[in-house]
Amino acid sequence: MSTSYLQRPLLQLFTTAFILVSVTKLQAQEKLYRNSFPLRDVTLLDGQFKHARDLNTQVLLKYDADRLLAGYRKEAGLPAKASIYPNWEGLDGHVGGHYLSALAMSYASANDAECGRRLDYMLSELKACQAANAKKYPDWGAGYLGAVPGGAGLWPQIKSGNVSIVWKYWVPWYNVHKMYAGLRDAWLYAGREDAKKMFLDFCDWALDITSALSAEKMDEMLASEHGGMNEVLADAYQITGDEKYLVAARRFSHKMLLDAMAASSDNLDNKHANTQVPKAVGFERIAELSHDEKYGKAGSFFWETVTSTRTLAFGGNSRREFFPSAASCTDFVNEVEGPETCNTYNMLKLTEDLFRGTPSAKYADYYEKALYNHILSSQHPQHGGYVYFTPARPRHYRVYSTPNQAMWCCVGSGMENHSKYAQFIYTKVKDSLYVNLFIPSELNWREKGVIIRQETQFPSSEQTKLIIKKGGGRFKLMIRYPQWVKEGALGIRVNGHRIPFEQAPSSYICVDRLWKKGDVLEIDLPMQNTSVPLINVPHYFAFMHGPLLLAAKTGTEDLNGLVAGDSRWGHIASGRKLPLDKAPVLIENDMASLAGKIRPVPGKPLSFAFSDLKIENAADVVLEPFYKIHDSRYEMYWMALSPGAYKSYIDSLSVLEKQNQELEKRTVDFVAPGEQQPEADHAMEKENSSSGNMMDAFWRDAKNGGYFSYKLNTQNETGLSLMVSYWNEPDDQKAFDIYIDGKKLDAGSADKKTAKPGLSNVEYIIPDPLLKGNAVIRVKFQAGQSTETGRIFKIRLLRK
Fold it and tell me: For residue 559, which of 380, 800, 796 has the smallest C-alpha distance?
């Protein structure tokens, strides 16, 4: 934040009395999410989650609010107060909306007055931007509150029916959705009534911009990533009761996904994962409010298929941001761009929504797994930086963001993740209190006049205790019997007396009684070790202790970019890929026995070692909770082979790994045409170009005078070549040219005449004069007037 902002006259009006909003306003959270408790009513006690939240609050206050607001002021035509953040340019403003949400949550949960002041400052500035937009753009700007660069050239075109223009911008609806959610949350968690009005005015703007679009035009537009637009419009319906918002929420529901999920058809292969999850969140919200069975089926089936067939042991999903097919799941161990934190952030939102309709323990089981192993692990425990990708590749590592530098999407969602740990510990249905998570905390159940304190050191201890600290009365305590506790092993005692029950794991046990102050309920939670095969890759295993993923540190060599700066690709752990054939291998005939060969390390809580098991390429392996591993390479999935299979498999893997390592050493830059984020990262430009998927790989082509181009980083090197992966048909005679910064490099068809049918790599030497003095070059593939480039799959800039 700019150092002068606190001295501005407007903020001198924000007194402490104003910040302490009335109780009635702070109940907005219960109005929107009927089973939840306001964050202010759940106090986190000392433990890892309180530490993570408090550290996150400190990190939030290091960000410069004026820079987060700069794009909004620019688009509204207001004088600049600070410069726009440079990283991820083209998506200006997206973190600003997340920041509003995080401030509101931290203000409510941590009772942090500075977060409240910062929130009010941002709202006052945004209110001025919204008013300025209405004056500057009278034909379309009333209610608008976005920072999409060049929005004046976009939104009127959409209003007139030219929805294809969204592809010339970087996911504009996704961008503005973050501000919708931020305004909603400023009201929802912090009770700011101005934010609610701004939110509803913004919703009215969306209705106006899209009012003339047919259902077909809407669906065409929704092929571009649009965040949870259907969710926030459903929220507007619940807030106001006005049917127009529910109609709009349905119009913003992408039929490609809705129809398939409602029909129990999994069409997620090779789709951008975090584009789809928010859509499903919206489906479920619409179902919750309208009781529409189709939307309800779509939301629940999406959750079922993602959690059961597309989720790794730590709760995350996707690689290179896309859902792989079953045949491509080996990418999880080959690639370094593992599950994206944003995906799990949104999956937890969907889980909360589903649980509100059906309070099933399976939802809480997944929530707990993802919370401990992905969300908690995505924050650095000392400096508080956020993680984008969590690689599952053996012996790789994660990188962390830096305040005011790396403005990735997972920075925005990360700000929220660590602000809302109190949200799902307890939920309610009438006179039933659900104890979903075993986190030290104190609940003020105001409507019952009861305060309940949960004391625990879980997961370091296998027990938790609930104490009635104040009040009493008859109500039901619904205690989760976790899926990871063996049947018959859970124990419940009230005031020392054992409570009998018949439920099995992954259920809730009802303790219904007249409670009084001083009553104590104790829960025994014995944890066991289990092994979990990697989805569709059965010779790789992860190990769990109760709900915790166990992993091992494997070294600290070449942690390039561990704490990222402002580089475009700093969110990717770019250090050397260590060869898979040199990673640890567990040698065992009976794979079912693996979990039984993990033993506790004496004197070290939550530390384990393999026992009576042969391990190649490793010695003295120590397993510990994954969320505790930072600033290190690690192993979360372990190759396990029988003695007979080991030799032949490793020999073949060694040949492949040698080829891969040699190619990696030569690679200066790489882009995967047809994949959303790599194309955005490399500033793609295109005309008459299309993309698709074939053999679980993405491609792009251009036709009839069209082209596509990317910026590639040369790292200021010369002596480079361009390797292009083509798909060739028999007698294929595609005709196109390749240009480097506008100068023709070579005719693509010339080298392809000798290529075999199928996928071929063709390497072109780039003359040094085209490279000298250029840190970045633009590589363009240009089709002839009546010809096409053919399908191009991968493009690499290589050292010769």
Answer: 380
Annotate 561-605 with DSSP letters as a single string. Answer: TSB--S-TTTTS--S----GGGS-EEE-S-GGGGGGGEEEPTTST
Instruction: Note the pLDDT of residue 754.
Output: 45
Q: Helices (H), strands (E): how many in the chain?
A: 24, 30
Mean pLDDT, the chain, integer: 92
pLDDT of residue 430 exceeding 70: yes
699 contacts 673 by C-beta, under 8 angstroms? yes
How many angstroms from the chain centroid is the CA of residue 20? 32
pLDDT band at 419 (very low <50, low <70, confident <90, very high): very high
Kindly state the average pLDDT of the residues 750-755: 46
Distance CA 640, CA 649 (A): 11
Helix (H, G, I), strand (E, B) or coil at 629: coil
Whether residue 459 is preceded by a cis peptide bond, meaning omega within 30 degrees of 0, is yes
What sign does the CA torsion over 783, 788, 793, 799 have? negative
What is the arithmetic mean of pLDDT over 261-286? 98
Phi (first) and psi of residue 605, to 5 degrees: -55, 140
Strand partners of residue 483: none
Kindly give the residue spans of alpha helices, DSSP state H, lying in 111-162: 113-136, 155-160
Q: Is the pLDDT of residue 7 over 80?
A: no
Which residue, 33, 52, 49, 4, is CA-closest to 439? 49
441-445 and 42-44: which strand pairing?
A: antiparallel
Summarize the confidence of residues 50-61 as an average pLDDT: 98
Q: By the 8 A CB rule, do 393 and 334 touch?
A: yes
- Which of 227, 225, 574 lies closest to 388 in space, CA to CA? 574
Q: Cα–chain-centroid distance for residue 462?
A: 30
DSSP SS3 for 414 = helix
DSSP state of 560: T
pLDDT given for residue 731 in this prediction: 56
Domains and CATH numbers, the chain: 426-524 (2.60.40), 529-656 (no CATH), 669-799 (2.60.120.260)
| Non-local CB neighbours of 12 within 8 Å, separated by 6+ positions | none
> What average pLDDT does this structure show over 97-103?
98
pLDDT at position 756 = 63
Name the percent of the chain lying above pLDDT 90: 82
Cα separation, 443 vs 438, whole angstroms: 13
Please state the φ and ψ torsions of residue 456, each to the nearest 5 degrees: -165, 155
- Contact call for residues 467 and 520 (beta carbons, < 8 A): yes
Question: DSSP letters along 499-538, please?
Answer: PP--PPSSEEEEEEEEE-TT-EEEEE----EEEEEETTEE
Structure tokens at 30: 């219960």
pTM, full prediction: 0.90
Kindly state the average pLDDT of the residues 623-649: 95
Both tokens assigned to 667: 């690679």
Q: Which residue has the tokens 């489906």?
A: 283
State the pLDDT confidence band at 755, using cuts at 50, 70 and 90.
low
In sequence order, the 6+-apart residues with CB closer than 8 A to the CB of 76 are 128, 129, 130, 132, 133, 136
In the numeric block, the tokens 């007396």 are attached to 497
Interacting residues of 287 by C-beta distance below 8 A, sequence separation 6+: 293, 295, 296, 298, 299, 357
Across 200-214, 652-666, 743-757, which has the greatest mean pLDDT?
Answer: 200-214
Q: Where are the beta strands (DSSP E) in 714-756?
A: 720-728, 736-740, 743-747
How far is residue 124's CA from residue 130's CA, in Å, rounded to a whole number?
A: 10
Tell me the residue length of the chain.
800
